[in-house]
Design brief:
The protein is an alpha/beta fold and 342 residues long. The protein has eleven helices and twelve strands. The chain has a domain of 153 residues. The strands form three sheets. It has an eight-stranded mixed β-sheet. It has a two-stranded antiparallel sheet with strand order 3-4. The relative contact order is 0.12.
């Protein structure tokens, strides 16, 4: 008797045979040709079918009409796993990549797909592995770490419960509690994502950053990026000065130069004072490091939020002196502090 394949089993089989790789990473692995002015320093891969969740900003959302091979501004062609593994080993050994990151959609069977993928990559290479995934328990986080991941990222995305409900249609409290429990269980091995521009105030975002930093959670900061064929395709990205103030606050908090309890905010939540002496603030921001892509080590995410030649939210490389001066001025000038000389 002919037995029809269970759809989930068939999907898992496909996922075990081919992984999707970001177009930039595929070029770094020499799997395709792509002209790049900045190469990714992390191997970015995506696992899973169209997501069961329906985040308003995401190309992989359940009701999104964006191509299934897309995530943010990036396309993700599929390649045979064996080919990716061979290329990843060579890229890590030659120091073209410093990390591998699996982006996992919340679709049926993807947790086991991700666990097997981590184990296969770990067996092939010593490259540090991050898994960005929606899990249901601390035990699932433990299983991914035991499979060979050195970090698990649980994307909170939204700074507050109301923003989470509007953007992700779920429970912020449940997501945050699991993130907190995981951070306490596995110190230094948990990350998250925060997206600036979903509707939160600067104060709300900085308070969330402080809370997560106190837990030892690494924070990947993103600017909201409108993507065609998503629910929020017509919304605008955050104003650049707004994003720079959040970037500056994140960098200064995580390096313990200040804390949200010492900051001052305007009535509308805008950051007004960082409680850092003007000369010192200018000095701290002068090299531009605060404005480079924040998150895991070796993660630079070129043009994830940007178009080449367009507004740069996260710089995927060291800033020039001029770029650093302009970026710093958007922090210093807007909170009443002299910026570094341009």
């Amino acid at each position: 008797m002919l037995r029809l394949l269970d759809p989930a089993t068939d999907a898992e089989r496909r996922a075990d045979e081919c992984w999707r790789v970001s177009s930039g990473s595929a070029a770094v692995l020499n799997l395709q040709h792509l002209k790049m002015d900045v190469a990714p320093t992390t191997l970015y891969m995506m696992l899973g079918e169209r997501c069961d969740r329906d985040c308003a900003f995401c190309a992989q959302a359940r009701t999104s009409q964006a191509p299934q091979s897309a995530l943010s501004r990036v396309s993700w062609p599929a390649f045979p796993v064996a080919q990716i593994l061979d290329a990843a080993v060579a890229a890590y050994d030659s120091e073209r990549i410093g990390r591998a990151c699996f982006q996992v959609t919340a679709s049926r069977g993807t947790f086991e797909v991700a666990r097997r993928a981590v184990a296969r990559l770990r067996a092939a290479s010593a490259v540090p592995i991050c898994v960005s995934i929606a899990v249901r328990s601390v035990e699932q986080v433990r299983a991914l770490l035991q499979a060979g991941a050195d970090r698990v990222t649980l994307a909170l995305d939204a700074a507050t419960p109301p923003v989470y409900t509007a953007a992700k249609h779920g429970s912020w409290r449940r997501a945050y509690t699991l993130l907190e429990q995981s951070a306490l269980a596995f110190p230094g091995r948990i990350g998250t994502h925060l997206i600036v521009g979903l509707g939160e105030t600067e104060r709300e975002m900085v308070e969330a950053i402080q809370r997560l930093a106190d837990l030892g959670v690494s924070i990947g900061l993103f600017a909201f990026t409108p993507i065609a064929h998503t629910a929020w395709a017509q919304r605008q990205p955050p104003e650049l000065g707004h994003y720079r103030r959040i970037q500056g606050a994140l960098w200064l908090i995580t390096r313990q130069h200040t804390a949200v309890s010492r900051m001052t905010f305007a009535a509308d939540g805008r950051l007004a004072d960082l409680d850092i002496a003007p000369g010192l603030l200018s000095e701290l921001l002068a090299d531009g490091d605060a404005f480079r892509t924040p998150g895991c080590s070796a993660c630079n995410r070129p043009y994830y939020n940007e178009r080449p030649g367009g507004t740069m939210y996260n710089y995927p490389r060291p800033l020039t002196a001029s770029e650093a001066a302009v970026a710093a001025s958007l922090v210093c000038d807007t909170i009443g502090v002299d910026s570094p000389a341009q």
